[in-house]
Amino acid sequence: MNIVEASGLGKRYGRTWALRECTLKIPAGRVAALVGPNGAGKSTLLNLAVGLSAPSAGEVTVLGGRPAGSMAALDGIAFVAQDTPLYKTLSVADMIYITRSLNRRFDQPFARARLDELGIPLKRRAGKLSGGQQAQLALTLALARRPRLLVLDEPVAMLDPVARHDFMATVLAAASADGMSVLLSSHVLIELERVANYLILLSQGQVRLAGAVNDLLATHGQASLEELAMAYLRENSESEVTR
Amino acid sequence: MTALSMTARRGEDDARLRPVPWRRMAGVTWRQHRVALIGVAVLLGALAVYLWIAGASLHHAYDAAVACHPESSAACQGLDNTVSGMDNFLSNGYILQVLPVLIGAFVGAPVLAREMETGTFRYAWTQGFGRWRWAVAKLVLLAVVVTVAAGAFGALLTWYYQPFLSDNQFLELPKTTPFAPGMFDLRGVGFPAWTLAAFAIGALAGMLIRRVVPAIVATLVVYVGLAFAAAGFLREHYLAPLVVSNYSNVPSNGWTVGQWWTKDGRVAFGDYPPASILNQFCPPTSAGKGGGPSEGWGPCLVQHGYAMWTSYQPTTRFWPFQWIEGGWLLALSLLLIAAAIWLVHRRAA
């Protein structure tokens, strides 16, 4: 089963195409990293996959053929958007209540236990939490929905190294615990090294490279994901220049 | 690390996917909007207490004045003066007319604008409840709550203002018609209907503008424009006015919407005669100076074959007019709320 499947997918804002001719299949059970420089179209692709925006061309399905944004798709996908938007004036307990109310499944004991472990008080307002705690709260709410696909848009961009590590550890633990698929975007390559086993390289709104990390490394003779990505991005920008 | 409990993830069978029940949005909406709703409750509650107390003494004094005989006695005059002296800052409902738009702007405008401004729509619209269902539930629920609260408050206002609209000529209350702005849109179904309209304008403005403060300002501007248009241009046309030929035939509480003069079956002039006619038939020196059509030049022109016509809306049309205005405001509000929901449904993030 493909957790995300796009064919000829495109998104246009005014006259510029943020994403063009995107065709890809991400198999289930992976931790897939969406990599590329700023403005490459990563957020655009994620927004299309979670159904926040509608494609200008082509189509995208999730969770094995469900149209992105449909009720069946929303039910199985949890999305943590960039900068982890939360209702800042509401308490942590209220955020739990709201997320539980808005979903068919919600693992309340898990959410409580995790927040307890993280030392996040239930009575505190979400806006009063530190950046790392807000990210962890947003992630906890997403995981408690028991999604089949977790989508994270630049999840650790705003976090310090310790919070970054803790965040990714939580994601990986959840993924390995119950086979949840993960799709995350990042322009920071180093943090992905440990976690991603599937890579999609985007630049200038187009997919340059997609596949299992081990296969890609073997085929392209690179030692690490970072080198592979860098090599591709360099080559690409040069070809753009020489063209 | 806390392990995910393995009991969850039931009902994954997609064919039988049941949507999250609508009723769950009640608690969600309350938690998100309790500050605004409590604000409305405190505002209306405090005013209601004041209206209740002031209204009770007003009605009491009014009943005493009406029951007093003989009317010309000093005692009765004293009672009349007591009632007149109670005409306070609430008179004619001038101040209270801001209430619907205050409620609409501060409850309605932020509903969607705040989600767009802070980016939380990316959270709300990706939950299992579903995006358009979320918008429907939230807007309909809040619209019903503010309309019901305004309806209750409107009933209180209707009762409070009754003495000012009575036909008792002997009382020296400021004479007003039930169609006057304030007397019309604060009473009956007017108050809840205008409150709902303000809420709907706010909700749509919030979705279009996507910023809380500009959306509130836009709501105020649009509402004031609509209220002025309704009071100044639309309301008098709800039903064809009645026409009478003599000014004294117009009932005292009726709403005069037009006046003109004819001679020999043709319209001669509008509500004021041109100088040429006045100088010809009734020069100011011979017919008394100034004055309205009922004195001075009025009776003089009648002697010269002119006839005055007045078109007006009788007080008996108060309720038909209320239902007409309430009806189109309800239709407009539903349209605006539907437009806001449609924008949520199709908006590209």
Fold blueprint:
The complex is a heterodimer of chains A (243) and B (349).
Chain A: E1 2-13, E2 16-27, E3 31-35, H1 42-49, E4 57-62, E5 66-67, H2 71-76, E6 77-80, H3 92-101, H4 108-118, H5 131-144, E7 149-153, H6 161-178, E8 181-186, H7 192-195, E9 198-203, E10 206-212, H8 213-220, H9 225-242
Parallel strand pairs in A: 3-8, 3-9, 6-7, 7-8
Antiparallel strand pairs in A: 1-2, 1-4, 4-5, 9-10
Helix pairs in contact in A: 4-5, 5-6
Chain B: H1 24-67, H2 74-85, H3 99-118, H4 121-124, H5 131-160, H6 190-209, H7 212-234, E1 242-244, E2 255-263, E3 266-269, H8 275-281, H9 297-303, E4 306-313, H10 318-346
Antiparallel strand pairs in B: 1-4, 2-3, 2-4
Structure, described:
The complex is a heterodimer of chains A (243) and B (349). Chain A has 243 residues and is of the alpha/beta class. Chain A has one domain: P-loop containing nucleotide triphosphate hydrolases (Rossmann fold), CATH 3.40.50.300. Chain A has nine helices and ten strands. Chain A has a six-stranded mixed beta sheet, sandwiched between helices. Chain A is globular. Chain A starts with a strand and ends with a helix. Chain B has 349 residues and is α+β, with helices and mostly antiparallel strands. Among the domains of chain B are: 178 residues, no CATH class; 59 residues, no CATH class. Chain B contains ten helices and four strands; from the N terminus they run αααααααβββααβα. Chain B has a four-stranded antiparallel beta sheet with strand order 1-4-2-3, with helices on one face. In chain B, β2 and β3 form a beta hairpin. At the A-B interface, α2, β6, α3, α4 and α6 of A face α1 and α4 of B.
